[in-house]
Design brief:
The protein has 294 residues and is an alpha+beta fold. It has two domains: 8-163, Ribosomal Protein S5, domain 2, CATH 3.30.230.10; 169-280, GHMP kinase, C-terminal domain (Alpha-Beta Plaits, 2-Layer Sandwich). Helix content is 28%, strand content 27%. The chain has nine helices and ten strands. It has helices at 72-83, 106-121, 128-136, 142-147, 181-186, 199-204, 215-221, 223-235, 260-267; strands at 8-26, 32-52, 57-60, 89-95, 151-155, 159-162, 169-174, 242-243, 250-254, 275-280. The strands form two sheets. Strands 1, 2, 3, 4, 5 and 6 form a six-stranded mixed sheet that branches. The protein has a four-stranded antiparallel sheet with strand order 8-9-7-10, covered by helices on one side. A hairpin with a 3-residue loop joins β5 and β6. It is globular and about 55 Å long.
Amino acid sequence: MSEAYFQSLTLRSPAKINLFLHIVGQRADGYHLLQSVFQLIDWCDTLTLKAIPENEIRRIGPIEGVPAEQDLVVRAAKLLKDFCKLDCGVEIGLYKEIPMGAGLGGGSSDAASTLIGLNALWNLHLSKEILCELGLKLGADVPFFIFGKNAFVEGIGEKIQEISLENHDFLVIFPNQGIPTVRIFQDPQLTRDHAPITIDGFLASSPLNQTNDCQAVAMRICPEVKQALDWIGQAVPGSVPRMSGSGSSVFAVLEPKTDLAKLENLLQNLPKGWIGRVVRGLNKNPAYNLISSD
């Protein structure tokens, strides 16, 4: 390994929402076959990486409920270090803003940013393809964040195609109740035979026709999902709120004429424990901004 380009890096790790989620089948091994569009949003965690002389991976600052050895950023660093057989160390700091258990991909994004950042910090020159292969060992959504652009996603999440999306503001609400993904996908009432669509079909469709096949099951398991959908429906009349991924966060696309100041005032009176934000769609993962020009 040659001398590092950087001694430290600070990266922003964005969340994502699923503009729709269709379950189009199920493999013999039980994995579900999906179609979705992943939209990056400017709700970000902040990751710091600092080269240290000790041959160890050191997380600074506790994260409630997440022991260091289970933290995806620590696991990502160890995975990359072992893959490249490196004798070096890193100090990792993570400031969480994306709520955990919200279904917004925060943990996967943090893991992706760790791989992206250490690839630069340690001067490894690994391709995105290799980083994606490593990321898949950490979670199905990690390769998307390494890919770094909005995408039409298929299969079990491994088939990723770039998609060009209009810039929109979104209202995102997390009702502070997590839903185990496995519980959603094991539910016997889950629809598993949605007719496949194409990218062109998605782009030509109205938001009124974009759905999430997990939503009905989630509302039955977690009543807060319906409460959050109803809250958005009242706060933004005429919008089409829906759940993101397997929940429990919900969102609505905001029209340009939406009174954002009024909406921000409404967000001050969310039910206790809920978290809500007006966010902006992104075209690129900002984790690449400091280290890449592509």
